[in-house]
Amino acid sequence: MKQVPSDYVVTDFTVLSQGYATKSGGVIDSSTLFSNSDKLAITHNGEAYLLRVTRSGKLILTK
């Protein structure tokens, strides 16, 4: 079954900041993912992506 945006996009960030689980699972703090780096390689459905933290602390995901 194909997901539609409402199935996986979180719009209420206050819920995340309180530590509640989303529909698809739990919440992981980005510092856990990045450790001592500002880049993270991710594969999804056989495609490679790069998740990185910008200088201003925002996240960017590129293919």
Helix content: 10-25%
Largest sheet: 3 strands, antiparallel
Report the sheet-strand fraction.
25-35%
Mean pLDDT: 76
Shape: globular
Output the number of helix runs. Answer: 3
CATH architecture, by name, is: Ribbon
Main CATH class: Mainly Beta
Note down, in words, how this protein is organized.
The protein has 63 residues and is of the alpha+beta class. The protein has one domain: Complement Module, domain 1 (Ribbon), CATH 2.10.70. The chain has three helices and three strands, in the order αααβββ. It has helices spanning 5-8, 13-17, 30-34; strands at residues 39-44, 47-53, 59-62. A three-stranded antiparallel beta sheet has the order 1-2-3, with no helix packed on it. The relative contact order is 0.12. Residues 1-10 have low confidence and may be disordered.
Please supply descriptive tags for the structure shown above.
63 residues; disordered N terminus; alpha+beta; Complement Module, domain 1
Outline the secondary-structure elements:
Blueprint: H1 5-8, H2 13-17, H3 30-34, E1 39-44, E2 47-53, E3 59-62
Antiparallel strand pairs: 1-2, 2-3
